[in-house]
Amino acid sequence: MFLDTGTRFPRKIIWSVALIKREAAEANASLGLLDPRIASAISEASTEVMGGRHDSKVLVDVFQTGSGTGLNMNLNELIAERATELLVKGGGKRITIHANDHVNMGQSSNDIGPSAIRVAAVALFSEELAPSMGKASKSLLALSKRTSAVYKAGRTHLRDALPVTMGQEFAAYTDAFDHDLKLLRNVIAYTKELPIGGTAVGTGVNADPRFGAAVVRGMNSSTKLGFSEARSRFRAMRLLSDLVALSSILSVTALDVYRLCQDVRLMFSGPLTGLGEIEIPTQEEVAGSSIMPGKTNPVTVEAAMLVSAQVMGLDRANQVAGMLGEFELSMGVPLLGYNVTMQVALLSEALRKLSSVVLDHVVPNVKRNRASAEASPALITAISPAIGYDKAVKVGKRVARGLSVRDALRQLGYTDREITKILDLQKLVNPKIGK
Q1: 11-105: CATH, from 2.40.30.170, 3.30.2270.10, 1.10.275.10, 3.40.190.150
Q2: Which listed residue (139, 157, 355, 372) is catalytic?
């Protein structure tokens, strides 16, 4: 008996199983193995399931037998029942469509489950995550260009360091997300290899030798996602390493999202007692406090951080799920499928909102940032070659008493023109200039 935790399979996994059932029926018909009338009814019923018309009848819990037999049979029976109804409505001789003999022809839960969860992950990546990551990179690139001349204090160990531009900081995340997307595309290519046609143990018993290829062709024709037959069905059924690898890169992406959000959150801190380096006007539309009127919090940023934590946590569960099973079959199919689709969906939403609600609306506090850059004691190291070691020591002592570097230089007799030349932040953040 399955558990009843109330955890149901997400829409995309139901869609992917139904897609395989539709293409399997059409493949069997084209191979002369299935009555075309039955195949047509199964195809129509499967298309309805793909569209979400019968989700209320997909009742099995995610926490079930590790091969996903419960999910496969739930869909087999649902599609068989609906296909029979469609045939009856169409008139003619009554034919009862059988869940196993017809809908599951040439298949086993052992190849359907591992195939379906891969199809769902690939489809979600293509439809949601890749566009969201592309949008995030585009938003970060635009933001880095908008803030390329916003000078600010750098920080290491949360202590004042040499100056940087805000644009340089955001450009670092642009590069990180570009690399993350490249890594994801590479592992998605691996995930597109499907064991369909392997049936019970990978040998393909009870399936026409041409069946797997025919199903994959049909899926590619309808989805344009570029699936292929696994080079080794035995590997793709007993090991879910490709999905574990996908999960790991999703976790790395979540880590980069978390770090970005943490930096934005600190930049937004204040307005009076924090860093106050940026404003995010759109966050003002959300009540920041139930008791403090007018308080503004980085709500979207923090929501994305919660998503990051969940994605990284699910990755650990996926590592364990990937180890479940022995010999010819993995026992972690339902859990890995559920978790990976959740990871992709969560990251897609977080990046979509982070881009449109936060990154596209960041307004730098230019004067405050420049003042902090010029006040940093670390700046003394950079100007030491220009004013000499002894004078740099005197500047350092004055800065320690609370003066800015600019005011300390002024006390030592430098003119404003000389000080502006010494404190050329453009050269300090890009030492190549002038060389």
Answers
A1: 1.10.275.10
A2: 157
